[in-house]
Amino acid sequence: MNLETHLSRHDEDVKNVILRISEVAKTISGGFASRQGASDSSNVYGERQSALDVWADELLISDLRDSGLVRYLASEEQPDVLTFPDSATDLGLTLDPLDGSSLIGVNLSVGTIVGIYRGNVLCPGNELLGAMYVLYGPLTTLTYCLKEGVHEFAMDKKGVFVLLKENVTLPDGKIYGPGALRRDYLPAHRAFIETLEEEGYKLRYSGSLVADVHQILHKGGVFTYPAFAGNERGKLRLLFEAIPMGFIVSQAGGAASDGHRDLLSIKPEGVCQRVPVYIGGKREIDLIVDINKERSV
User: In whole angstroms, what is the distance from residue 297 CA to residue 282 CA?
Assistant: First the structure.
Protein backbone atom coordinates (compact mmCIF):
# COMPACT_ATOMS: atom_id res chain seq x y z
CA MET A 1 0.00 0.00 0.00
CA ASN A 2 1.31 3.48 -0.81
CA LEU A 3 1.18 6.55 1.42
CA GLU A 4 -1.65 8.26 -0.44
CA THR A 5 -3.92 5.23 -0.16
CA HIS A 6 -3.08 4.78 3.51
CA LEU A 7 -4.03 8.41 4.22
CA SER A 8 -7.34 8.26 2.33
CA ARG A 9 -9.49 7.89 5.45
CA HIS A 10 -8.21 11.12 6.99
CA ASP A 11 -9.31 14.75 6.47
CA GLU A 12 -8.49 15.94 2.98
CA ASP A 13 -6.37 18.91 4.06
CA VAL A 14 -4.32 16.83 6.50
CA LYS A 15 -3.82 14.09 3.92
CA ASN A 16 -2.72 16.58 1.30
CA VAL A 17 -0.26 18.41 3.54
CA ILE A 18 1.46 15.12 4.49
CA LEU A 19 1.65 14.15 0.82
CA ARG A 20 3.02 17.59 -0.04
CA ILE A 21 5.76 17.28 2.57
CA SER A 22 6.57 13.78 1.32
CA GLU A 23 7.19 15.23 -2.15
CA VAL A 24 9.51 17.92 -0.77
CA ALA A 25 11.31 15.22 1.22
CA LYS A 26 12.14 13.44 -2.02
CA THR A 27 13.79 16.62 -3.28
CA ILE A 28 15.71 17.03 -0.02
CA SER A 29 16.82 13.40 -0.20
CA GLY A 30 18.31 14.06 -3.63
CA GLY A 31 20.11 17.23 -2.60
CA PHE A 32 22.71 16.02 -0.12
CA ALA A 33 25.59 15.47 -2.54
CA SER A 34 25.48 18.94 -4.10
CA ARG A 35 24.90 21.07 -0.98
CA GLN A 36 27.70 20.26 1.44
CA GLY A 37 29.37 22.80 3.70
CA ALA A 38 28.31 25.75 5.85
CA SER A 39 26.34 28.84 4.86
CA ASP A 40 27.15 32.43 5.79
CA SER A 41 24.13 32.67 8.10
CA SER A 42 23.09 31.70 11.63
CA ASN A 43 19.66 30.69 12.87
CA VAL A 44 17.63 32.26 15.66
CA TYR A 45 19.65 30.31 18.26
CA GLY A 46 22.94 31.75 17.02
CA GLU A 47 23.97 28.43 15.48
CA ARG A 48 25.84 28.37 12.18
CA GLN A 49 23.58 26.95 9.51
CA SER A 50 24.67 24.40 6.95
CA ALA A 51 23.94 25.07 3.29
CA LEU A 52 21.40 22.23 3.47
CA ASP A 53 19.71 23.76 6.53
CA VAL A 54 19.03 26.96 4.62
CA TRP A 55 18.01 25.20 1.42
CA ALA A 56 15.66 22.69 3.10
CA ASP A 57 14.04 25.45 5.15
CA GLU A 58 13.46 27.68 2.12
CA LEU A 59 12.21 24.74 0.06
CA LEU A 60 9.64 23.62 2.64
CA ILE A 61 8.42 27.14 3.43
CA SER A 62 8.06 28.08 -0.23
CA ASP A 63 6.25 24.89 -1.17
CA LEU A 64 3.88 24.94 1.81
CA ARG A 65 3.09 28.62 1.32
CA ASP A 66 2.29 28.06 -2.35
CA SER A 67 0.21 24.98 -1.61
CA GLY A 68 -2.58 26.92 0.12
CA LEU A 69 -2.72 24.08 2.66
CA VAL A 70 -1.13 25.83 5.64
CA ARG A 71 -2.14 29.00 7.50
CA TYR A 72 0.50 29.04 10.25
CA LEU A 73 4.04 27.74 10.00
CA ALA A 74 6.83 27.78 12.58
CA SER A 75 10.29 26.64 11.53
CA GLU A 76 13.28 26.03 13.76
CA GLU A 77 15.28 28.19 11.37
CA GLN A 78 12.92 31.21 11.63
CA PRO A 79 12.49 33.68 14.53
CA ASP A 80 8.69 33.99 14.30
CA VAL A 81 5.59 32.07 13.32
CA LEU A 82 4.79 32.72 9.66
CA THR A 83 1.18 33.38 8.62
CA PHE A 84 -0.20 32.69 5.15
CA PRO A 85 -3.58 34.52 5.03
CA ASP A 86 -4.51 33.13 1.60
CA SER A 87 -4.56 29.57 2.89
CA ALA A 88 -7.75 27.61 2.30
CA THR A 89 -7.28 25.71 5.59
CA ASP A 90 -6.66 26.45 9.27
CA LEU A 91 -3.73 24.03 9.57
CA GLY A 92 -0.64 25.02 11.53
CA LEU A 93 2.71 23.26 11.15
CA THR A 94 5.95 23.15 13.08
CA LEU A 95 9.10 22.23 11.15
CA ASP A 96 12.59 21.13 11.95
CA PRO A 97 13.65 21.12 8.29
CA LEU A 98 16.88 19.20 8.77
CA ASP A 99 17.52 17.74 12.20
CA GLY A 100 21.09 16.51 12.77
CA SER A 101 22.53 18.58 9.93
CA SER A 102 25.98 18.66 11.57
CA LEU A 103 26.26 14.99 10.56
CA ILE A 104 25.80 15.60 6.84
CA GLY A 105 29.53 15.92 6.18
CA VAL A 106 30.21 12.46 7.61
CA ASN A 107 27.25 10.79 5.84
CA LEU A 108 25.22 9.87 8.93
CA SER A 109 21.44 9.87 9.04
CA VAL A 110 19.50 13.12 9.42
CA GLY A 111 15.80 13.93 9.28
CA THR A 112 12.85 16.28 8.92
CA ILE A 113 10.35 16.64 11.81
CA VAL A 114 6.79 17.99 11.48
CA GLY A 115 4.00 18.74 13.97
CA ILE A 116 0.45 19.28 12.68
CA TYR A 117 -2.17 21.42 14.46
CA ARG A 118 -5.54 23.05 13.86
CA GLY A 119 -4.78 26.75 14.14
CA ASN A 120 -2.23 28.11 16.59
CA VAL A 121 0.99 26.09 16.83
CA LEU A 122 1.99 27.45 20.26
CA CYS A 123 -0.03 24.71 21.94
CA PRO A 124 0.89 21.75 24.13
CA GLY A 125 1.54 18.48 22.35
CA ASN A 126 -1.68 16.92 23.59
CA GLU A 127 -3.46 19.26 21.15
CA LEU A 128 -1.60 17.93 18.11
CA LEU A 129 -3.61 16.54 15.23
CA GLY A 130 -0.59 14.48 14.33
CA ALA A 131 3.12 14.41 13.64
CA MET A 132 5.55 12.90 11.17
CA TYR A 133 9.23 12.59 10.47
CA VAL A 134 11.35 11.67 7.48
CA LEU A 135 14.62 9.83 8.06
CA TYR A 136 17.27 10.12 5.35
CA GLY A 137 19.42 7.03 5.82
CA PRO A 138 20.25 3.92 3.76
CA LEU A 139 16.51 4.07 3.12
CA THR A 140 14.47 7.26 3.06
CA THR A 141 11.59 6.48 5.41
CA LEU A 142 8.52 8.45 6.45
CA THR A 143 6.77 7.77 9.75
CA TYR A 144 3.46 9.44 10.56
CA CYS A 145 0.80 9.35 13.27
CA LEU A 146 -2.67 10.92 13.24
CA LYS A 147 -3.81 9.34 16.52
CA GLU A 148 -4.72 6.12 14.72
CA GLY A 149 -1.47 4.23 15.04
CA VAL A 150 2.13 4.91 14.03
CA HIS A 151 2.91 3.89 10.48
CA GLU A 152 6.22 3.67 8.61
CA PHE A 153 6.80 3.95 4.85
CA ALA A 154 9.93 3.58 2.72
CA MET A 155 10.67 5.32 -0.56
CA ASP A 156 11.09 2.76 -3.34
CA LYS A 157 13.16 3.02 -6.53
CA LYS A 158 10.30 4.84 -8.28
CA GLY A 159 10.14 7.50 -5.56
CA VAL A 160 6.89 6.16 -4.09
CA PHE A 161 6.47 5.83 -0.31
CA VAL A 162 5.21 2.29 0.29
CA LEU A 163 4.08 0.76 3.57
CA LEU A 164 6.92 -0.81 5.53
CA LYS A 165 5.27 -1.37 8.90
CA GLU A 166 1.77 -0.55 10.13
CA ASN A 167 0.83 0.12 13.76
CA VAL A 168 4.37 0.29 15.08
CA THR A 169 4.53 -0.29 18.84
CA LEU A 170 7.46 0.35 21.13
CA PRO A 171 9.01 -2.96 22.26
CA ASP A 172 10.78 -3.69 25.51
CA GLY A 173 14.48 -3.10 24.98
CA LYS A 174 17.69 -2.02 26.65
CA ILE A 175 19.13 0.77 24.53
CA TYR A 176 19.86 4.25 25.79
CA GLY A 177 20.82 7.28 23.72
CA PRO A 178 22.29 9.93 26.06
CA GLY A 179 22.97 13.50 24.97
CA ALA A 180 25.21 15.95 26.88
CA LEU A 181 28.64 15.32 28.41
CA ARG A 182 28.81 12.91 31.33
CA ARG A 183 30.92 15.40 33.31
CA ASP A 184 28.01 17.88 33.14
CA TYR A 185 25.26 15.51 34.31
CA LEU A 186 23.10 16.77 37.17
CA PRO A 187 22.77 14.36 40.14
CA ALA A 188 19.31 12.97 39.33
CA HIS A 189 20.19 12.32 35.71
CA ARG A 190 23.49 10.75 36.70
CA ALA A 191 21.62 8.35 39.00
CA PHE A 192 19.21 7.55 36.15
CA ILE A 193 22.02 6.72 33.70
CA GLU A 194 23.90 4.67 36.30
CA THR A 195 20.75 2.63 36.98
CA LEU A 196 20.32 1.90 33.27
CA GLU A 197 23.96 0.87 32.95
CA GLU A 198 23.72 -1.40 35.99
CA GLU A 199 20.74 -3.07 34.30
CA GLY A 200 22.76 -3.73 31.14
CA TYR A 201 21.46 -1.02 28.80
CA LYS A 202 23.66 -0.49 25.72
CA LEU A 203 24.67 3.01 24.66
CA ARG A 204 23.58 3.91 21.12
CA TYR A 205 23.79 7.60 20.22
CA SER A 206 24.46 9.25 16.83
CA GLY A 207 23.69 12.92 17.53
CA SER A 208 20.66 12.94 15.22
CA LEU A 209 17.43 13.11 17.23
CA VAL A 210 15.38 11.59 14.42
CA ALA A 211 17.75 8.66 13.96
CA ASP A 212 18.18 8.03 17.68
CA VAL A 213 14.47 8.18 18.52
CA HIS A 214 13.66 6.07 15.44
CA GLN A 215 15.98 3.39 16.85
CA ILE A 216 14.25 3.53 20.24
CA LEU A 217 10.85 3.29 18.53
CA HIS A 218 11.91 0.02 16.91
CA LYS A 219 14.21 -1.50 19.54
CA GLY A 220 13.00 -0.10 22.87
CA GLY A 221 14.76 1.82 25.62
CA VAL A 222 15.11 5.57 26.05
CA PHE A 223 16.53 8.62 24.32
CA THR A 224 17.50 11.54 26.52
CA TYR A 225 18.98 15.00 26.21
CA PRO A 226 18.70 16.21 29.81
CA ALA A 227 19.19 19.43 31.67
CA PHE A 228 22.89 19.69 32.44
CA ALA A 229 25.38 21.95 34.20
CA GLY A 230 25.40 25.31 32.46
CA ASN A 231 22.18 24.55 30.59
CA GLU A 232 19.55 23.67 33.18
CA ARG A 233 16.73 24.36 30.72
CA GLY A 234 17.98 21.69 28.32
CA LYS A 235 19.13 21.95 24.72
CA LEU A 236 16.41 20.54 22.47
CA ARG A 237 13.53 22.69 21.21
CA LEU A 238 10.14 21.95 22.74
CA LEU A 239 8.09 23.00 19.71
CA PHE A 240 10.15 21.55 16.88
CA GLU A 241 11.81 18.45 18.32
CA ALA A 242 10.47 17.34 21.70
CA ILE A 243 6.72 17.62 21.11
CA PRO A 244 6.44 15.90 17.68
CA MET A 245 8.87 13.08 18.47
CA GLY A 246 7.43 12.63 21.97
CA PHE A 247 3.93 12.49 20.48
CA ILE A 248 4.84 9.74 18.01
CA VAL A 249 6.56 7.57 20.62
CA SER A 250 3.71 8.11 23.10
CA GLN A 251 1.18 7.05 20.46
CA ALA A 252 3.27 3.91 19.91
CA GLY A 253 2.87 2.92 23.56
CA GLY A 254 5.81 4.82 25.05
CA ALA A 255 6.04 8.09 26.94
CA ALA A 256 7.82 11.46 26.93
CA SER A 257 8.87 13.70 29.82
CA ASP A 258 11.09 16.60 30.81
CA GLY A 259 12.08 14.50 33.81
CA HIS A 260 9.19 15.80 35.93
CA ARG A 261 6.05 16.02 33.78
CA ASP A 262 4.62 14.79 30.49
CA LEU A 263 6.29 16.68 27.63
CA LEU A 264 2.96 16.82 25.82
CA SER A 265 1.38 18.80 28.67
CA ILE A 266 3.84 21.72 28.38
CA LYS A 267 2.50 24.82 26.61
CA PRO A 268 5.27 26.52 24.62
CA GLU A 269 6.02 30.05 25.80
CA GLY A 270 7.58 30.91 22.44
CA VAL A 271 9.12 29.36 19.36
CA CYS A 272 12.62 29.29 20.87
CA GLN A 273 11.83 27.44 24.12
CA ARG A 274 14.20 24.63 25.07
CA VAL A 275 13.41 21.72 27.36
CA PRO A 276 15.05 18.63 28.91
CA VAL A 277 13.93 15.53 27.00
CA TYR A 278 13.32 11.88 27.90
CA ILE A 279 11.53 9.84 25.21
CA GLY A 280 11.09 6.08 25.29
CA GLY A 281 9.48 3.26 27.21
CA LYS A 282 7.06 3.98 30.05
CA ARG A 283 9.28 2.11 32.50
CA GLU A 284 12.29 4.28 31.72
CA ILE A 285 10.25 7.49 31.83
CA ASP A 286 8.70 6.50 35.17
CA LEU A 287 12.20 5.84 36.49
CA ILE A 288 13.54 9.36 35.84
CA VAL A 289 10.34 10.95 37.17
CA ASP A 290 10.59 8.86 40.36
CA ILE A 291 14.27 9.72 40.84
CA ASN A 292 13.51 13.43 40.51
CA LYS A 293 10.63 13.14 42.99
CA GLU A 294 12.80 11.35 45.55
CA ARG A 295 15.49 14.02 45.30
CA SER A 296 13.06 16.91 45.63
CA VAL A 297 11.61 15.69 48.94
Answer: 23
